[in-house]
């Protein structure tokens, strides 16, 4: 069992949870994820590491209660425990050698992108962080990102905080101002990552995107997390989750992403009612 040491809401939709998992805390790196299961009746879901503390033996995850399992997860408290907390899985993000980077997070993707920005900052890289949210009440980790970035640019759809508009507008503006990025990392909705990659491609800027398709086992056996990259299909769990943003087939990823929408909706309805044990929360909707 893996004890939960702390649970706190970050906004009305998102929760931060600190789990005691000493072995994972010593090994996990930015970009990698874990597979957790609440109890023997639950499903396994993938969540990306938000922070780790090897000395304390803890791993922090941030998640949004969007499906049956994450809704159950959000109800747990400090002192409860998780049955399974397996990892680290996936490959660490390739960050070595970057000297000037732009890390972009869309919504909950901000929590997934935070450890990469922190690592880059700690290793002497100049880091711009651009984050996008629907409105000011959904902004995540503003103080934490300020502490590990050269510049933080917040974009909101309604202009209630920061600048009104899209993250790609801020990215284009920074490029036009002469920002000489040698790495852009984008984490968020597929459509956002698609247009981030389209923005950087004319300039030949190395661009990584973190893909979060449906994932069942996290080891490549189920085949559910296939991502078309160039002329081949790769598995996000073992080949990723980060891929060359200029090679990913985003339209294919979006088509695959809606295949199980009806099942997810039914599971959420059940969770909101009497039964919280079913569901498909297989995308990495957290960090």
UniProtKB/TrEMBL annotation:
<dbReference type="InterPro" id="IPR039261">
    <property type="entry name" value="FNR_nucleotide-bd"/>
</dbReference>
<dbReference type="GO" id="GO:0050660">
    <property type="term" value="F:flavin adenine dinucleotide binding"/>
</dbReference>
<keyword id="KW-0274">FAD</keyword>
<dbReference type="InterPro" id="IPR019480">
    <property type="entry name" value="Dihydroorotate_DH_Fe-S-bd"/>
</dbReference>
<keyword id="KW-0560">Oxidoreductase</keyword>
<dbReference type="Pfam" id="PF10418">
    <property type="entry name" value="DHODB_Fe-S_bind"/>
</dbReference>
<dbReference type="InterPro" id="IPR050353">
    <property type="entry name" value="PyrK_electron_transfer"/>
</dbReference>
<keyword id="KW-0479">Metal-binding</keyword>
<keyword id="KW-0411">Iron-sulfur</keyword>
<keyword id="KW-0408">Iron</keyword>
<dbReference type="GO" id="GO:0004324">
    <property type="term" value="F:ferredoxin-NADP+ reductase activity"/>
</dbReference>
<dbReference type="InterPro" id="IPR017927">
    <property type="entry name" value="FAD-bd_FR_type"/>
</dbReference>
<dbReference type="InterPro" id="IPR012165">
    <property type="entry name" value="Cyt_c3_hydrogenase_gsu"/>
</dbReference>
<dbReference type="InterPro" id="IPR001433">
    <property type="entry name" value="OxRdtase_FAD/NAD-bd"/>
</dbReference>
<feature type="binding site">
    <location>
        <position position="237"/>
    </location>
    <ligand>
        <name>[2Fe-2S] cluster</name>
    </ligand>
</feature>
<feature type="binding site">
    <location>
        <position position="222"/>
    </location>
    <ligand>
        <name>[2Fe-2S] cluster</name>
    </ligand>
</feature>
<keyword id="KW-0285">Flavoprotein</keyword>
<dbReference type="InterPro" id="IPR017938">
    <property type="entry name" value="Riboflavin_synthase-like_b-brl"/>
</dbReference>
<keyword id="KW-0001">2Fe-2S</keyword>
<dbReference type="GO" id="GO:0046872">
    <property type="term" value="F:metal ion binding"/>
</dbReference>
<dbReference type="GO" id="GO:0051537">
    <property type="term" value="F:2 iron, 2 sulfur cluster binding"/>
</dbReference>
<feature type="binding site">
    <location>
        <position position="225"/>
    </location>
    <ligand>
        <name>[2Fe-2S] cluster</name>
    </ligand>
</feature>
<dbReference type="Pfam" id="PF00175">
    <property type="entry name" value="NAD_binding_1"/>
</dbReference>
<feature type="binding site">
    <location>
        <begin position="62"/>
        <end position="64"/>
    </location>
    <ligand>
        <name>FAD</name>
    </ligand>
</feature>
<dbReference type="GO" id="GO:0006221">
    <property type="term" value="P:pyrimidine nucleotide biosynthetic process"/>
</dbReference>
<protein>
    <submittedName>
        <fullName>Ferredoxin-NADP reductase</fullName>
        <ecNumber>1.18.1.2</ecNumber>
    </submittedName>
</protein>
<feature type="domain" description="FAD-binding FR-type">
    <location>
        <begin position="1"/>
        <end position="95"/>
    </location>
</feature>
């Amino acid at each position: 069992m893996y004890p939960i040491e702390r649970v706190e809401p970050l906004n009305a939709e998102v929760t931060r949870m600190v789990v005691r998992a000493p072995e994972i805390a010593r090994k996990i790196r930015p970009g990698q994820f874990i597979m957790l299961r609440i109890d023997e009746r639950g499903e396994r879901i993938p969540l990306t590491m938000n922070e780790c503390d090897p000395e304390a033996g803890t791993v922090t995850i941030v998640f949004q209660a969007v499906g049956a399992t994450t809704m159950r997860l959000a109800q747990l408290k400090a002192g409860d425990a998780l049955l399974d907390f397996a990892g680290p899985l996936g490959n660490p993000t390739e960050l070595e050698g970057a000297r000037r980077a732009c890390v972009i997070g869309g919504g909950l993707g901000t929590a997934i992108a935070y450890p990469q920005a922190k690592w880059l900052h700690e290793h002497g890289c100049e880091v711009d962080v651009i984050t996008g949210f629907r409105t000011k009440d959904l902004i995540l980790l503003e103080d934490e990102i300020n502490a590990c970035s050269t510049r933080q640019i917040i974009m909101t759809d309604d202009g209630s905080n920061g600048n009104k508009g899209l993250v790609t507008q801020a990215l284009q503006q920074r490029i036009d101002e002469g920002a000489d990025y040698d790495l852009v990392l984008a984490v968020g909705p597929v459509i956002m990552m698609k247009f981030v990659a389209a923005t950087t491609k004319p300039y030949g800027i190395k661009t990584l995107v973190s893909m979060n398709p449906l994932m069942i086992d996290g080891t490549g056996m189920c085949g559910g997390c296939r991502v078309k990259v160039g002329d081949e299909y790769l598995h996000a769990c073992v080949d990723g989750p980060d891929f060359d943003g200029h090679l990913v087939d985003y339209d294919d990823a979006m088509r695959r992403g809606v295949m199980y929408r009806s099942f997810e909706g039914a599971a959420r309805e059940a969770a909101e009612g009497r039964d919280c044990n079913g569901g498909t929360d297989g995308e990495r909707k957290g960090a």
